[in-house]
Design goal:
heterodimer; A: mainly alpha; Fumarate Reductase Cytochrome B subunit; two-stranded antiparallel ribbon; 7 helices; about 60% helix; about 5% strand; B: two-stranded antiparallel ribbon; 15 helices; 13 strands; globular; signal (chain B)
């Protein structure tokens, strides 16, 4: 295995990388300002934290709209279809195999850049956590307006509660996500891949039939 | 060309693009951040300021008459009533109008102040209670005016002799603070006693000349007129309100951004607008206005509220502060503290009154140059730069009058704001909370109304039994003869001494974990102050768990060297 030649394939397109990193910065910034607004610490000053949190939050909506457009028009959404096949292999690899120098059970290929565990995680992130966070964010931001308008007297508390909870989940994701980037062929190879678009894989890795979307299957 | 070379080229190009994007993003965010954090370099005014500037833009009010040229005023007056007759010879309806206002009646229930939507029973309730200084209203300062029979209180009534004489127009319209009572007492004495003595007559003429000179100086009500009573309510400068004292005679902008003589220089009546001598403002249970409207919505609305001129969304368009205005009164942030120049009285313990030194009453002067003890009044405390307390308020207040039953085991709320978080018309308002300890009837369970001034008053006799008996009789109320002192509170809405915008409260005065100004208003979720302990604990557990997990995993990889030999 150690003799297998490492080659680079172009895995992440320009927009994908732009979206990924911009979103990364935004999430980081929103976490930092968000926890200040939550009262966890003082950093930028409350007024600045609130203003910038709202500004970046609203900007993120625009970016996310572009992401949704991109993921559907390019067919990339197929990369997020969940599967349980080899899921446990991947879990076992990260739990044990990685310490024993065993190969990753599912290598990246242009047709399937996410392993089954990633598929599940990113689907949960893009389809659940982020939309919930955006929705509660909008409700939080416009609470006075819609609450006055609807006249129902819905308290801010549940909105704030969900928004805070998801923020914790996103922070947790961020920590694990950043750590996982170090598990590539070298410590920074995954990060380099997301910056340049070129990801290192073993030359011999064949794309598995099950990994392909139905249309592309031979 | 090999694949590796292509890849390297792409890496360089990709890196450059990535860095460029980063720089662009950061540059995009920077100006917004700076804009949000700097207050001093703002060049564009907030919409609320622009609107207010336009609302008060008109030129100074002009006057078409010179009272010093009026024949009616060029006579030798023998009494105050004669002056009023002279006024009424032209302003024929003034007295009739004025007799209906609370400045004359001292009763809040006589005339409805606004066209309210209140039910008849609510109106009747107010009438029955007979609110007002001339009614059953009490406070925890000098307690009661004893049906207008406590003469010391009448100094501030707008008549020449209580409600039995004519209206004293000069109280509000005379620009010279002239002691007419003393002058007319002298004139009367001279006239009666020594009619034939030419030297006495000359002195009399001289005094009448002084009266005439003062009478000619007619004005629209100025701060000095309103302030003589409203700055000194409760028997001295700044005793009652805390946001109204003699420092507002000539304030600078820092003390009052509207009245500052170095700024807009508003008189009281600039906001307290008047219809038929009825002056806009809060009166006991009646709010200043039924609903806040801007002049854009109703150009004839009274200018008594902030919204009138500043609109409901006075801050800059993108500002989150505009989202506060539906639940937080402007005053709450824009009056950081009150009594910023002169001290105000914060507590008054009547139970300590009556201590004498060698049989004589005495005073003790405290740090702020104010009495902390007076034999005639008891123990009191004064404070400067006082942080308000905050309550939900719909603009009205309930009060405990001399006929209401109290619970002496509790602190009696002599006046209390009405409102709650669930009432959409309520907003968070700042208040001065004055603590008192005042006499009550142990049998009837009512607050008592001692007579204070005059030969039979407590200030002369130091006899509670007698002054309480007489005081109650004056109001026609029973007194069992058994009394004690009960703790009480009285609230004043804080609405004057609006500070310039740079002195407005920072977010963290309220949006902070524990020691915020709104700590006691707990019925709603406020970002920065509130959190769900369970969510926070669970959240941090997950985050720290993740951190611990990846750390252990990383260490595992380090020590096993990823399983490589």
């Amino acid at each position: 295995m150690t003799h297998t030649k490492i080659i680079k394939i172009y895995l992440y397109t320009r927009f994908e990388r732009f979206w990924h990193w911009l979103q990364a910065i935004m999430i980081l910034f929103l976490l930092i300002t968000g926890f200040e607004i939550h009262g966890t610490y003082t950093l930028l000053g409350y007024k600045t934290a609130v203003f910038t949190h709202n500004f970046v939050g609203l900007s993120w909506l625009v970016l996310f709209a572009f992401f949704v457009f991109w993921v559907f028009t390019t067919g990339e959404w197929r990369q997020y279809i969940p599967t349980t096949k080899k899921l446990f292999d991947v879990i076992i690899y990260y739990s044990f195999g990685i310490f024993q120098g065993k190969p990753h059970p599912v290598e990246k290929t242009p047709g399937a850049k996410h392993n089954p565990l990633q598929r599940l995680t990113y689907l949960a992130l893009s389809a659940l956590l982020l939309p919930v966070q955006m929705l509660t964010g909008i409700l939080y931001y416009t609470w006075n307006t819609w609450n006055t308008w609807s006249g129902m007297g819905i308290p801010l508390a549940p909105v704030a509660m969900i928004h805070t909870f998801v923020a914790f989940m996103l922070l947790s994701f961020l920590l694990v996500h950043v750590y996982m980037t170090t598990t590539g062929h070298s410590l920074f190879s995954h990060i380099a891949g997301m910056i340049t678009g070129w990801e290192e894989i073993y030359e011999t890795t064949p794309i598995q039939e099950w990994e392909l979307p139905e249309k592309r299957r031979v | 060309m090999t694949k590796i070379q292509t890849a390297q080229k792409s890496i360089t190009a990709g890196l450059i693009k990535f860095l460029c994007s980063l720089i662009i993003i950061v540059l995009m965010l920077v100006p917004q951040t700076i804009k949000a954090s700097s207050n001093t370099e703002e060049t564009i005014d907030a919409p609320g300021r622009t609107l207010a500037r336009q609302a008060v833009k008109r030129e100074k009010r002009w006057i078409t008459t010179d009272h010093s040229k009026h024949e009616a005023l060029k006579k030798d007056f023998m009494s105050g009533d004669e002056i009023t007759e002279a006024c009424l010879s032209c302003h024929s309806e003034a007295s009739t109008q004025f007799h209906k206002t609370i400045h004359w009646t001292w009763l809040a229930s006589g005339e409805p102040q606004t066209d309210s939507e209140k039910t008849d029973s609510e109106k009747k309730d107010k009438t029955d209670r007979n609110y007002g200084k001339a009614g059953y209203s009490v406070n925890n300062f000098c307690i009661s005016a004893n049906n207008m029979q406590d003469k010391a209180c009448l100094k501030c009534h707008t008549g020449w002799n209580g409600k039995t004489g004519k209206v004293n127009c000069l109280k509000c319209h005379g620009s010279e603070q002239f002691n007419y009572t003393e002058a007319f007492t002298d004139i009367k004495a001279f006239a009666e006693e020594s009619k034939d003595d030419p030297s006495v007559l000359e002195i009399m003429k001289e005094i009448q000349g002084e009266v005439k000179a003062a009478v000619e100086k007619i004005t629209l009500p100025q701060r000095d007129n309103c302030g003589q009573c409203h700055f000194k309510g409760g028997g001295g400068d700044g005793v009652k309100h805390g946001d109204l004292d003699t420092s507002l005679m000539k304030p600078n902008k820092r003390l009052d951004v509207h009245m500052g003589i170095d700024g807009k220089n508003f008189t009281c009546t600039r906001c307290h607008t008047t219809t038929n001598h009825n002056i806009a403002g809060r009166i006991y249970t009646n709010p200043a206005v039924e609903s806040s409207k801007s002049l854009l919505e109703d150009d004839l609305a009274p200018k008594i509220t902030c919204v009138s001129c500043h609109s409901e969304t006075p801050h800059k368009t993108a500002s989150k502060m505009n989202d506060h205005t539906d639940r937080v009164a402007c005053q709450s942030c824009h009056i950081p503290d009150f009594a910023r120049v002169n001290p105000t009285k914060m507590s008054w313990n009547w139970s300590k009154a009556g201590d004498l030194k060698d049989g004589k009453p005495y005073d003790i002067i405290g740090d702020l140059g104010k009495e902390t003890y007076k034999s005639i009044k008891g123990e009191m405390t004064w404070e400067k730069n006082v942080k308000p307390v905050y309550f939900w308020s719909n603009g009205t207040q309930t009060s405990t009058t001399a006929v209401d039953i109290i619970d002496p085991s509790t602190v009696v709320k002599v006046s209390q704001p009405v409102g709650s978080v669930n009432d959409r018309d309520s907003r968070i308002y700042p208040f001065k909370l004055h603590k008192g300890k005042q006499p009550y009837d142990k049998v009837n369970k009512t607050l008592l109304t001692p007579l204070l001034s005059g030969p039979k008053g407590y200030w002369t006799t130091f006899n509670w039994d007698e002054s309480l008996t007489i005081g109650s009789e004056m109001l026609g109320l029973p007194f069992s003869g058994e009394f004690d002192f009960v703790e009480s509170t009285y609230v004043f809405p804080i609405t004057h001494m609006v500070a310039p915008k740079d002195m407005a409260l920072n977010c963290t005065e309220c949006h902070t974990r524990e020691t915020g100004r709104l700590e006691s208003l707990a019925e709603f979720y406020m970002p920065g102050r509130d959190r769900f302990k369970l969510i926070d604990s669970l959240g941090w557990l997950v985050v720290l768990g993740s951190l611990a997990g990846v750390s252990l995993h990383g260490l595992g990889r380090f020590f096993t060297r990823n399983g490589k030999k």
